[in-house]
């Protein structure tokens, strides 16, 4: 068993997460002190994400040759992203309307004044609301919460500074002023734009760039080797991140808002197993087979609460699974900005939760208006912990239907729901890549079979260290 634990990252990360929970619960001060372990691991991963995305996209497009094909793949990916994220927003709103997680959070015994906007964002009150609003746009008298929540002053500065971004501003923001700054800031959209331009330029120059392409391919392999080295310390990162989360916020902070958390996790599960499951069937592969293939990445995201932490390994594993390198290079980075299914579900539920908690009634038309805004603000949201609050603040500020100060209700438990968001984002982006590859005819079923077969055999070899096994029978997992 110790030997199996030594070789099995899944077991290592699970053990690390369990230890982190115990340490954070028993010794909160120790848990908070372990924060640098999680931060250090995230920094190591972030260090290679930009260069790896650049190399993958450039090599993929330059070897694809046909620039019309590049545009076709991009259009198909965007269509998929918009359809699926819209479904995610809709499902989140439906569940929030049925379960009403915000009801009962506050009492009517006392009242306090909650400003409709945070101090730093009141200047934007002159913007036209989505629909005629009543008291919700004025200072709102909201019942005092029964739970310990943050005051508006304690809402993260990044959320306070959030503002509405127009479509034109968003489009301009994806064009880098300085490509080196895009890499240092980790701006995936700007890196994506520059990488696509580089790949198209190299492809247009033809055979004369063959030596350059070969060099870039070798450099890509070097980056994947660096990723493999970094992943050896993934359990330490998961241990530190989980210990800090439990030590800082405490298990007791989950109880007052348990209904919201249960609704969020349940909705994510419904979306994964029903919506994404049906999409997998439609494109000819099984959801459970795919989930088993990326289980290590799921556990890594569970420990770190950031889907970006698994991005480098996802790129490598999806290529092994039979997806075209060019499509993986284009869809995965774009998906981390445009296909955040988990974030979309959370945002739609969070808006209704805050409205319900503060007694703000939203009509069907107003809810659809909020959903329309979320279809824009949820795009480009960073796939890192805490980005959800920033996007939510921008949405509330732009609609003027629900007080931005209501974010204070979520600050304490947002961190505990980020795992569900990140895991759903990870699973959704991988499925999107497979679907676009199949849609474009750039998927190799033989590689898929071989990857699944190798994965199962590797798991059986590790199990033999602890349990006797019979000779396995391996079958194809592609659905005819």
From TrEMBL:
- Mostly located where? membrane
Region Disordered: what ranges? 110-132
Compartment list? Membrane
| Membrane topology category | Multi-pass membrane protein
Per UniProt, the keywords (alphabetical) are: Membrane, Symport, Transmembrane, Transmembrane helix, Transport
The record, for Gene3D superfamilies, names:
Sodium:dicarboxylate symporter (1.10.3860.10)
Q: Which Pfam families match?
A: SDF
Biological process annotations from GO: L-aspartate transmembrane transport
Q: Which GO terms describe its cellular component?
A: plasma membrane
Which parts of the chain span the membrane according to its record?
41-65, 77-99, 188-205, 226-246, 258-280, 345-364, 371-394
What's this protein's name? Cation:dicarboxylase symporter family transporter
Source organism per entry reads: Humisphaera borealis
């Amino acid at each position: 068993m110790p030997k199996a634990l030594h070789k099995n990252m899944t077991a290592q990360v699970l053990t690390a997460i369990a230890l982190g929970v115990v340490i954070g619960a028993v010794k909160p001060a120790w848990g908070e002190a372990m924060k640098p372990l999680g931060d250090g691991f995230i920094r190591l991963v972030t260090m290679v994400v930009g260069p790896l995305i650049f190399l993958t996209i450039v090599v993929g497009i330059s070897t694809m040759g046909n620039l019309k094909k590049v545009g076709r793949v991009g259009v198909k990916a965007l269509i998929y992203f918009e359809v699926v994220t819209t479904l995610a927003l809709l499902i989140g709103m439906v569940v929030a309307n049925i379960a009403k997680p915000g009801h009962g959070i506050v009492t009517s015994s006392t009242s306090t004044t909650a400003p409709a906007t945070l101090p730093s964002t009141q200047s934007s009150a002159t913007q036209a609301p989505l629909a005629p609003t009543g008291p919700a746009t004025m200072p709102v008298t909201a019942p005092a919460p029964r739970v310990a929540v943050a005051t508006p002053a304690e809402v993260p500065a990044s959320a306070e500074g959030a503002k509405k971004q127009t479509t034109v501003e968003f489009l301009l923001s994806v064009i880098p002023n300085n490509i080196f700054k895009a890499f240092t800031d980790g701006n995936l959209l700007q890196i994506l734009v520059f990488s696509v331009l580089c790949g198209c330029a190299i492809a247009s120059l033809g055979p004369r760039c063959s030596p350059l392409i070969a060099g870039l391919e070798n450099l890509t392999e070097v980056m994947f080797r660096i990723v493999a080295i970094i992943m050896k310390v993934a359990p330490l990162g998961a241990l530190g991140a989980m210990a800090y989360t439990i030590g800082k916020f405490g298990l007791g902070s989950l109880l007052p808002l348990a209904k919201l958390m249960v609704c969020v996790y349940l909705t994510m599960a419904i979306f994964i197993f029903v919506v994404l499951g049906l999409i997998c069937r439609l494109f000819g592969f099984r959801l459970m087979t795919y989930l088993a293939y990326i289980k290590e990445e799921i556990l890594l995201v569970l420990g770190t609460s950031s889907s970006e932490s698994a991005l480098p390994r996802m790129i490598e594993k999806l290529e092994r699974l039979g997806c075209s390198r060019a499509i993986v290079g284009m869809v995965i980075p774009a998906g981390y900005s445009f296909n955040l299914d988990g974030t979309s579900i959370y945002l739609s539920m969070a808006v209704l939760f805050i409205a319900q908690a503060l007694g703000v009634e939203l009509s069907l038309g107003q809810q659809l208006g909020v959903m329309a805004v979320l279809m824009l603000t949820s795009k480009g949201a960073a796939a890192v912990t805490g980005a959800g609050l920033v996007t939510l603040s921008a949405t509330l500020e732009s609609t003027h239907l629900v007080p931005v100060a209501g974010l204070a209700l979520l600050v304490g438990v947002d961190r505990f729901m980020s795992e569900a968001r990140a895991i759903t984002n990870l699973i959704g982006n991988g499925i999107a890549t497979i679907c676009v590859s199949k849609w474009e005819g750039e998927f190799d079923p033989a590689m898929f079979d071989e990857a699944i077969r190798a994965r199962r055999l590797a798991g059986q070899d590790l199990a033999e260290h602890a349990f006797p096994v019979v000779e396995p029978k391996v079958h194809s997992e592609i659905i005819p």
